[in-house]
Amino acid sequence: MNLHYPILFHRHQDNPILTANDWPYPIHTVFNPGATRLADGTTLLLCRVEDRRGHSHFCAARSANGIDGWQIENTPTMVPDPQRRPEELWGIEDPRITYVPELERYAVVYTSFARGGPGVSLALTADFRDFEYFGNVMQPEDKDATLLPHRIGQSWALIHRPVGPTGAHIWISYSPDLRHWGSHKVMLEARLGAWWDANKIGLSPPLIETSEGWLMIYHGVRHTPAGCLYRLGLALFDLKTPEKCLLRGENWVFGPETPYERNGDVGYVTFPCGVTVEDDGDTLHMYYGAADSCIALATGSIRTLLEWLHASGRPARRTVDDRRCQ
Ligand code: BMA
User: Which residue segments constitute the domains of the chain, with CATH numbers given?
Assistant: First the structure.
């Protein structure tokens, strides 16, 4: 690590904060948790748990301070149900949680995995015990999805990462009812070439709403002869027109450096699906899967991330949906 680059996220000294050894029932690994703060301030992580078949389900862990003292449910919280939802045949992965005040529900958007490939599924819950399942809202191949917490104009907005002939870019789609989606638009593209986010990008935690715009922490993947590198970057989008990118940083801001991020089932992966904002309105707790094997915590500051974007970011170019490019 070169100390001349600013450190925007600070790893917690007790990382990893959750591992398979903490689980009350037999599991292989735990990683990529969604996160939210409940009405009483408790932090809830919806952890992706992988069993020894290789299939994943979700299990909730709760903590008063979001750091330690995790109370882990004794049984799985959300389980794949291929009888009712065939798209979950091989498991459910990578949940992102958004509280939606209009519905008085949390939206859990997750990857469902079956023969057709990974697709995007949605469920609503008030208490993380009972869930209303909407099934696949985006067909394969698609993942890395989240719902915005309120409508944009009249429409709900879903951010997701379909894979198509032009590559793996971040898109936004709109819906009047959470079931029928359209008005698909590209939000942010993989940069191609030799960039750190050249080969694939995807939303990581849900967007953070700030007075200056929607703040996005996204992952970028670079293929190397040794495998894939998963790192994180920042971008800012217009509040009223979220497909409009106001600023995108050039450098990555977080990546695999420690032994628990570099060694595991899939090494060199830092993959957050959840972020919470502490009571001061600025401090972020970013929860991430490390090497697809454990859960770690890094803290940051919204103000500092925005300052960094203003200092080093620039508006992003979009070419994938530019009808003038032949
Ligand atoms: C991505 C997702 C994540 C995983 C990462 C690294 O495509 O499937 O669940 O953490 O790959 O394996």
Answer: 27-314 (2.115.10.20)
Q: Say how many Å lie between the CA of residue 93 and the centre of ligand 1.
A: 9
Per-residue model confidence (pLDDT) at position 326? 35
- Give the per-residue pLDDT at 1: 62
Return the pLDDT at 2: 67
Q: Which of 48, 96, 269, 294 to mutate to test the pocket of ligand 1 (most atoms within 8 A of CB)?
A: 269
Atom 1, ligand 1: which residue's CA is nearest? 271
A 10 A CB-CB count for 100 gives 17
Out of 230, 263, 294, give the residue to mutate to test ligand 1, the one with the largest number of ligand atoms within 8 Å of its CB.
230
pTM of the complete model:
0.97
> pLDDT (tens digit, 9 = 90+) per residue, 95-148?
999 999 999 999 999 999 999 999 999 999 999 999 999 999 999 999 999 999
> What's the mean pLDDT when you consider all of the chain?
96
Residues whose beta carbon lies within 6 Å of some atom of ligand 1: 32, 93-94, 230, 266, 269, 271, 289, 292
